[in-house]
Amino acid sequence: MAQIGLLKDLLLGRVPDRGPDFFIAGATRSGTTYLHHLLGVHPDVFMPGTKELHYFDNDRRYREDLSGYRRRFHGYRGERLIGEATPSYMMHEWKAHRNGVAMARIGRHFPDAKIIISLRDPLTRAVSQYEKNFLQGRVSAGIADELAAEDRGSSRLRLIYQNSYDIHIASVFDHFPQEAVRFLVFEEWTKAVPETAASLAEFLGLRPLANWPVPEKKAQNDRNRYRRVSEVPPALDDASRDKIVAGTAAGRRFVEALLGRKMPWAC
Asked: Is residue 267 a part of any domain in this protein?
């Protein structure tokens, strides 16, 4: 029955028979919700109503024949480009037998796709990741305890590993050529949104817009929307700050060499 329903949707033009053409594949807590909406307001782009489909990084959801995937793009009306935003796709899975599983799957099914990755200061991103999980009630320990748990190999968040950009970007390049990947720096592009929109349009081969529509307020993540506990996240202590900066230094150097300029990040 599901296949009959999909065929009906295809015939009626409500779901695409191809694509996506591009993926916003990273990184979490780096403005990807805004990018999802920013590109989605272009008249030649279709983005699914739900951000973060988590199809290629979920073994229970993923199927080799992509069954169930294109149904997530319901509402398609023939737009020239189709995109998807799941920022965890870029993450090089820490388990050895799952190295780069999401990007490998995307590369196998959509080898000509373009990849957009927004990178944020590893220090502020790590703190943001911690605070989100704390407010959601997923962790209760302080950030120093989380870092100590990561040293022991028992951390749920793995804050330093998640912010080691050299590991994750290298995994992306295992499956896509460098020219197919556009890197944005969160601290830069959020201060120049019109210029960023124009640059992304050129990268994706979209017609330029004289006045790019501004996404609705909901496109920006509100920190308080994650609040499920009454406590305030513990403040970042100096020792934890230094540990994150030192632990992610190789990734920062990698990004600076890749982009050919110094990043506006902690040093």
From this structure: no
